[in-house]
Amino acid sequence: GQNIDQPTEMTATEGAIVQINCTYQTSGFNGLFWYQQHAGEAPTFLSYNVLDGLEEKGRFSSFLSRSKGYSYLLLKELQMKDSASYLCAVMDSNYQLIWGAGTKLIIKP
Amino acid sequence: DTAVSQTPKYLVTQMGNDKSIKCEQNLGHDTMYWYKQDSKKFLKIMFSYNNKELIINETVPNRFSPKSPDKAHLNLHINSLELGDSAVYFCASSQDLGLVETQYFGPGTRLLVL
After folding, report:
1. A4-8, B41-45, B110-114 — which is least confidently predicted?
2. Residues A3-14: tens digit of each pLDDT
């Protein structure tokens, strides 16, 4: 079966750095997405990785290792507004997005 | 200039009723989706529509029926609502299906069946 695993919840301090991990097992691979979802709101796109390596976009970076079925989202200089759930999703061979349950990130002052 | 919009935002109804949720996108996208997000926060694909044709139907009960009057709209009709249908329903759209495309989500419809 297809499976996306990520931690349920993480806590970090304002101004710090946090890494959210995601491991996946899917039938085929056409890229991995990270979405941010604030409580009560819709998911919004953060990043897309299809090749191995690190993609940097401002305070957020996303890393992919296809051989390990592993990705992480790195958030630097954390701000209170970064408190949200972060969803990992993999596009399988049928171009269907398979979603993880999300990691709830709590930022403390 | 909302990209993907849904109505209503909240829907409270009794078991056995029939209800509809509307979705519209003004992005000019060819593909639209319906997702169900349950209490455990998993997003589960229900339907995909590409150029008014149903592409994916993920073993959703036939009480759920998507209706697309044109490529900018994908409405979700639910018959004989059950308690387990309570969830947040998200509409989304992307430029195409079969390519790797970012999906843009609507604000969600919070359905509560009593």
Report:
1. B41-45
2. 999 999 999 999
Determine the pLDDT at residue A69.
96
Query: Residue A58 is encoded by which pair of tokens?
Result: 């401002």
Residue indicated by tokens 């996208």: B29
Tokens (6 digits) for B44: 């589960």
Contacts of B107 in chain A (CB under 8 A): 41-42
Which regions of chain B does DSSP assign to beta strands (E)? 4-7, 10-13, 19-25, 31-37, 43-50, 53-57, 64-70, 73-78, 87-94, 104-105, 109-113
Chain A CB contacts of B43 under 8 Å are 43, 87, 89, 99
Asked if residue B106 lies in contact with residue B5, where contact means CB atoms within 8 angstroms, the answer is yes
Query: Which of A93, A96, A104, A105 is the best residue to mutate to test the B interface, defined by the most B CB atoms within 10 Å of its own CB?
Result: A96
Contact A43 B90 (CB under 8 A): yes
